[in-house]
Amino acid sequence: MIVSASSRELLDRVIAYAAAEGITGRSLREIAAGVGTSHRMLLYHFGSREGLLAAVVGLIEQQQRDLLGELADRVASSGPPAEGTKAGELMLLLWARVSDPELRPYVRLFFEVVGVAVHDAPGTGGFLANLTGPWLDESEAVARRLGLAVDRDELRLGVATCRGLLLELLAGADPRATDASYRLFVRMWESRLTGA
């Protein structure tokens, strides 16, 4: 996502506000007041409340993809264990981060934006087009760096599994059970990679 410096500064303020106060269910005027700007300024930069939320989620998603790359570098430099083990280690590190209760407001916001985007809310036009593709691209790059042979269908399954379990967490599922389900998925993935 390419944004101007002033739009990025506003996004950073909205993200900080969302972390502290939450923005789900808040009007554009409430969000503007919370970040010390006017609703007109937010409209100028993002077109609508939904456009603002889509931009916020897009930036958070980019930060998480950047984290995936950083974690992959850490895993790659940790030595030469079996192929599937590196993939599993990376998947568990990323899961620990995205399922952290501290990120729950952003996960809730992600699903809120998906919900309004599927109804063509103003300002969300590009959101669905970039919902999964950038994750697949980053994951392919990471897999190459780790020397893993995976295809986009397998990567899409990984993204969908993670998102489904995050939705379970939002719906009140036991975090231990959700974590156990994700770990089972990782073991299945590792078995496929190693041929075990």
UniProtKB/TrEMBL annotation:
Q: Which residues form a coiled coil?
A: none
The entry's DNA-binding region feature spans 27-46
Where is the signal peptide, in residue numbers?
none
Listed A to Z, the keywords are: DNA-binding
Listed GO MF terms: DNA binding
Where the record annotates domain HTH tetR-type, the positions are 4-64
The answer to whether UniProt assigns keyword NAD to this entry is no
Report the protein name in the record: TetR family transcriptional regulator
- Species of provenance: Catellatospora coxensis
